[in-house]
Automatic annotation (TrEMBL):
<protein>
    <submittedName>
        <fullName>Uncharacterized protein</fullName>
    </submittedName>
</protein>
Length: 261
């Protein structure tokens, strides 16, 4: 990125679409001094050198109003461990359909209000994510996720959405009783929803997994008297990923039809 970006003092947002960032160094960094009005940073269908976060997005003088940071369809594979000393806490942070193979612990310390890591090659999510104070919306869909973490102690009181679309989740642990009719679990494309559809249609009367006292006493109870409670909590209808408005960008910005996710 050219240092000339420092001249754009009224910049409200940056979107990089269908590009490759070879170098975005410190001399062209997004800063509060140069970009005090900036509120959003969107990196979409874009690769970065070695899959690393550019230095230009890591200034200690981060814009004071930049609370919306979203990556979608990128090669980002990790986040710097000291990012919580640079980015603002309570931000919207989305790293979707990228290359995170391990959940970055720095995301816990950043305490985002909206967090999505959908579409990454993750196989597990730390239990602390579900306990984050201030988190309202969690995206963990389109991943090879066989189950939610077992040992969640106290689910965040602010959490209202958990998006686990297109995962392999077939059951819920006992802690999920805490979220019944308070949090919406969006689970289209999961084995759990496949089982629930069979139960609703009268094809089956139990979930396919063997019963366990460690499972949710409510969400794993398919009895007729409990079914509506489940339906008030688990949504198996149509739901698109990613959470980022990729379809809109692809419609207006793409030169040709982008490859499917």
């Amino acid at each position: 990125m050219s240092d000339s970006i420092n001249e754009f003092h009224g910049l409200h947002g940056v979107k990089v679409y269908n590009s490759t960032i070879i170098d975005w160094g410190g001399s062209a960094a997004i800063t509060n001094t140069k970009h005090p009005e900036m509120v959003s940073l969107y990196i979409v269908r874009t690769n970065m050198s070695s899959g690393l976060l550019p230095v230009g997005f890591q200034s200690v003088d981060f814009p004071q109003n930049l609370y919306d940071i979203e990556f979608c369809v990128t090669n980002l594979c990790t986040l710097p461990d000291d990012l919580d000393t640079k980015w603002h806490h309570s931000s919207i942070i989305q790293v979707e359909f990228s290359q995170l193979s391990n959940f970055p612990s720095v995301l816990l310390r950043l305490e985002p209000t909206v967090l999505s890591v959908s579409g990454n090659p993750l196989t597990e999510i730390p239990p602390e994510v579900f306990e984050l104070s201030g988190l309202s919306d969690l995206g963990i869909g389109a991943m090879n996720l066989n189950e939610l973490p077992r040992n969640v102690t106290l689910v965040s009181s602010t959490l209202i959405w958990i998006r686990l679309v297109e995962t392999n989740v077939s059951f819920f642990w006992s802690w999920a009783d805490q979220v019944v009719e308070r949090v919406l679990l969006v689970a289209k494309g999961s084995p759990y929803c496949a089982d629930l559809e069979k139960i609703q249609n009268g094809v089956a009367d139990t979930f396919s997994v063997s019963p366990s006292p460690e499972y949710s006493s409510i969400l794993m109870d398919p009895s007729e008297t409990n079914l509506q409670v489940i339906l008030n909590t688990v949504y198996c209808g149509e739901f698109d990923l990613p959470f980022y408005f990729l379809v809109v960008d692809d419609y207006y910005l793409a030169i040709s039809t982008p490859p499917p996710l």
